[in-house]
Amino acid sequence: EKVKIIQTAHYVPDLVVSNDDLSQIMTTSDEWISKRTGIKRRHVSLGENTSDLCTKVASDLLAQSGWQASQLDLIIVATMSPDAYTPATAAIVQGNIEATNAFAFDLAAACSGFAYAFEVASQFITTGRAKKVMVLGGEVLSKVVDWQDRTTAVLFGDGAAGVLLTESDDQAAILASDLQTFGSDAAKLSAGLNQPLTSFGDFKPKQISAFAMDGHAVYNFATREVPASLKRACHQAGLELAEVDHFILHQANERIIKAIAKRLKLPLSKFAVNISEYGNTSAASEPILLDELVKQNKVKRGQIIALSGFGGGLTVGTQIIRY
Ligand SMILES: O=C(O)C1CCN(c2ccc(-c3cc(CO)ccc3Cl)cn2)CC1
After folding, report:
1. pLDDT tens sequence across 244-265
2. What is the ipTM of this complex?
3. Residue tagged active-site, from 10, 49, 250, 253
4. What does the alpha-carbon distance between residue 97 and residue 143 come to, in Å, rounded to a whole number?
5. How far is the CA of 124 from the centre of ligand 1 (A)?
6. DSSP string, 178-211
């Protein structure tokens, strides 16, 4: 479709927590975490909520692009760790940056959230319903992980990132997309489960459930469904996988990324990995990586990039983009 990425930006909180820091508060080790996940450190938010991280990215996107907040028509925030049920994190961001002409909403697709939000935004642009759109992925997962559960607490980090999208005036375009949901496996990865009353009267104190995951099942799901999604999207774009210059995958686990590259018989050099610095930042992870590659001039105008998110839902979401 006629959609172009005009600007990228990312923000992570200042506090860096290393694997050794974690081994002081739980039974784990730098050796285990590094070997099994590729993660060396992660950024943790103290006092900043998801809307605060997203607002920093929103301000950077506007400053770097020269767009005025009042020019924005739409703001979408993809997150699995919103500030609240309501107001939407996107609405808080809209107020913070005074984007008075933009309507705003959150999108819940866990680690595929950015890919799903990117797809929704592109439909608003190609139908002419919106011209200037901000798409953000933001998470404060440190507020949903169980810091006593070493199998999950060591995996996640906080961060936000995003893009500005508008109608393309050149070769830039979204060439294809592939969004899939496997709801029968929904229970394999959850956080923030809210239970209904079981009988009227015995009101128990509210407790929001922490992050829980069947790691083995989700790992196998990812190594199977991400290659399938990338193949379908490339086929839809009329491209061979080999014609993709950069595979920008959700940074869930370094071994998973290597397994996907191997399964697709593609060089690992096309799969950027920055999980060592950030951990798994769910909906923020693809846009953080995309911003880094753009700012390092590794992703260049005219190149073909594949963005792929996967995780809670279970979901997978892929776009093939001529940047
Ligand atoms: O090696 C080990 O023992 C363990 C094996 C299990 N691992 C996993 C498993 C799944 C995920 C994961 C998480 C999300 C949530 O954003 C989305 C997508 C994925 Cl694929 C991350 N790590 C960690 C190392």
Report:
1. 999 999 999 999 999 999 999 9
2. 0.97
3. 250
4. 24
5. 33
6. EEEE-GGGGGGEE-S--PPPSSTT--PPP-----
